[in-house]
Every structure is written in structure tokens, then in C-alpha cells.
Design goal:
It is a multi-pass membrane protein. This is Minor histocompatibility antigen H13. By secondary structure, this protein is mainly alpha-helical. It has one domain. It is built from 14 helices and six strands. Helix 3 runs parallel beside helix 7 and helix 5 packs across helix 6. It starts with 26 loop residues before the first helix and ends with a helix.
Amino acid sequence: MADVDQGSVLPIETSPPALDGLNATDTNATDVVNATVAKFVATPEGTALAYGSLVFMALLPIFFGALRSVSCGKSKNSSDMPETITGRDAARFPIIASCTLFGLYLFFKVFSQEYINLLLSMYFFVLGILALSHTMSPFMNRIFPANVPIKQYQLLFTQGSGDTKEEIVNYEFDTKDMICLVISTVVGVWYVLQKHWIANNLFGLAFALNGVELLHLNNVSTGCILLGGLFVYDVFWVFGTNVMVTVAKSFEAPIKLVFPQDLLEQGLGASQFAMLGLGDIVIPGIFIALLLRFDVSLKKDTRTYFYTSFLAYIFGLGLTIWVMHTFKHAQPALLYLVPACIGFPVVVALLKGELTEMFRYEETSPEDPAVKEKTTDTTEAEKKDK
């Protein structure tokens, strides 16, 4: 179990206790402070429940996000179109992430933590509502009563006029989407007012699922560059400096999944959490989703590479928990997840003689000019046939 003063950085960690409302100059209050800051020792049952729940929650957005990533490019809504990550993007990402992390560190050192977190809360409030609404939409389509009338809406934002008019936002939605938006708003208000861990997890799962679904790596080489770069990033900022520790302790936003280790003793009001950062879900998740799309491109009934990488993720996350629990020190999860998620599929591809085919597999962005030109030619040919 990670010590209290080490726990906030991690991918998987124990949160520092809250000391709000205590006056340390009072004798009784001092006793309370001393009792509160004492290292929390979770029961074996509480530990197993917390880490088991985190692993289960991490697998949900990866599995369903990967499945949804196969068909999301066919959507007509611009908001549902995938964002393709190229090799250049992957190489720059660890640098951008490092600058962002260090920038937040400086902000928390210079400015009031309260005001920064207020701005972040409002920002993630809006993003969380949109992400959760998008996540709920397919489930709402299945359970929505067939006898209820459905009205269609369109949010269109353009630039220019006449022949120079250009669409900036073209979002189509209906009554079911409006209901999802209302439910998501209720969760958002709950999170802003209470910062409850269940509301945090609902937003966190939505962010992770949307990330796996909508962020597409264009090929396996790009995935290796991205994961390799973030492998170095994670190890450096966790073991090399206290920057990530400071930011993690100060940053209040649904960018992690949490589960209480004292749930069995305290119920829903529990306050001692094990945590898993969303980056440790989304980054391996988009690579696993890429391998699922590669499986689909092979036009075989099996999903060998998807299931191999999925099992590799479970192995890597389990190894992270075991090492942290054994050595009582916070661990960067990507240190174990990256070798597992890349190594296992590569070994399988070598054994099957498909390694070259795997690395030659290429995804093209729907916004690529070549794709647009090909689509236009196909459409014109279909019109001529008719």
C-alpha cells in the first residue's frame, strides 16, 4: 500500500486525508489531526475490493471503446468523427504533456489552489456532461420506448456566406440525446457540489471510453512511438521529480478512477481511496483499439490481436498493483503496461508470421484529401451507373 505522502502521484494510489475545519492550535483538534494523518491501513478485504474494482472499471472503457471505435468513423456527426494521431503527433505528445504538467506545477506554486481548481471544475463540468451524454447515447437508443415520438434537431454553425460558406459545427441530435444531456447535467451538478467519488467515476469512465473510441492511431508504428515516449515520460516524472506528486495532490478533476479501500467499514461515505489515472487507461486503450481494427481488416472470424493485447493489459495492470503492494511505493503504471501491451501482440504476430502485415497496416483519416477524392470519385461513379 502506498504511504499517504506518496500516494497522490500515482496511477494507483491512496489519497491524502482531508483536514478541513480543524484548528491545530486547540489540543483536542491537534489530537484529531494526529489521528487523521496517521497512515491508513486497509483490511485485506478492502484492498482486494478496491483494486479489483479499479481493474474492472479500467477494462470497461477499453473493451467497449475499442468496439465502438470500429464503426465511429461512419457517423455523420462531426463530433463523432475520430481524430487520427500520426507519427509526428505521437513524437510530440510526451513533450507537450511534460510542458503541460510542469505548467500546472508552476500555476499551483504561484496562484491560489482554490481558484485554479474552481476553473478546472467548471471546465471539466462542461466536458464531462458532453462525454457522459455521448457515452449514454447507444444505451438510450436500445431502451427508449418505441411508442414515444422522437423529434430531430440540428445545431449548425457556419462561417462565411454563399459559395464560401464553411461548416464549423454540424451536430445532429434527437429527443433521446436531449434526455442523455439532462441526465448527464444532473451528474455534473452532483460532482461540482459534492465531489463524490461515484460522480467522479461516471465522468472518468465517460472520458476514457470517448478517448479510446475517438482517438485513432494511424498505424502500429505510431502506437509504439506514442507508448514508448509516454513510458519515459511516466517514469521520469514519477521517479525523477516531485512535480507529478505536487500536481496530483493539488489537482481536483475527474481525471482518475477512484475506489475506497474503507468501503466495507464506512459505506458510501468512505474517504481512503485507491486511484488509477485515466492516462493509464486511454493510452494503452487506443493501441488495443487499433489492434482490434487490424483484426477486422484481416477479415477473419478471430480477434487474436485484440484479445492478446487485452489480456496483456490485465497482466500489466496486475503487475503494477503487485509491485506497489510489495514494495510499498507508488508506481508509474505505464512502466509495466507499455512492454506488456506492445510485447504480447508482437510475439503473437511473430509466431503467426504476420508481423510485417501488422506494421504495414495503415489507417487514413476521413479528412485526408486522398480519402475525400476517392469518396467523391466513388459517388460520381454510382451516379453514372444509376
